[in-house]
């Protein structure tokens, strides 16, 4: 299952009002499968550990939840929000409500910086049966247009450094 939000026409929003969408899939989507190919150590745990140690790209850290602008984000203000502890299933987590509230606050901060930015957001969660993965929320604001380099080569040009994006969101 893939749960996502397309907000604004430029982000593929199909209705004028905010709505999230659910798509049932027979297998984990390829992006989730790729995230789990990080070797023995969980990819999200590895990112959170290095980002918390560095600190400059951390937007919020409640101890239980961490939001960071990943170092190689695809777009300005790309955000990754995950529980600090490795939990596979978002929908069984006692932290989901707090995570969504923190996520909504970050989107509000983004809007106070950049206006009504079209955006895509989704939740990546491990399967109930397999009990694997580390659930997280991802936000990709659509401040740039994926073009030939992005679509053809899979290389994303991001004109805003993650450190600067995180600092701006922290200061809101
Ligand atoms: Zn993990
Ligand atoms: Zn993900």
Following the backbone from N to C, one meets helices and strands in this order, namely EEHHEEEHEEHH
Query: Can you identify the CATH class?
Result: Alpha Beta
Instruction: Estimate percent helicity.
Output: 25-40%
H/I helix tally: 5
Q: If strands are numbered along the chain, what order do they take across the biggest sheet?
A: 2-1-6-7-5-4-3
How would you characterize this protein structure?
With 172 residues, the chain is an alpha+beta fold. It has one domain (28-170): HIT-like (HIT family, subunit A, 2-Layer Sandwich), CATH 3.30.428. Helices cover 30% and strands 20% of the residues. The chain has 5 helices and 7 strands; from the N terminus they run E-E-H-H-E-E-E-H-E-E-H-H. The chain has helices at residues 30-35, 43-54, 96-114, 148-153, 162-170; strands at residues 2-7, 20-23, 58-61, 65-68, 79-83, 119-124, 136-141. Strands 2-1-6-7-5-4-3 form a 7-stranded antiparallel sheet, with helices on both faces. Strand 3 and strand 4 form a beta hairpin. It starts with a strand and ends with a helix. The relative contact order is 0.20. The model has no long low-confidence stretch (mean pLDDT 92). The structure holds zinc ion (2 copies).
Task: Give a brief rundown of this model.
The chain contains five helices and seven strands; from the N terminus they run ββααβββαββαα. The protein is α+β, with helices and mostly antiparallel strands and 172 residues long. It starts with a strand and ends with a helix.
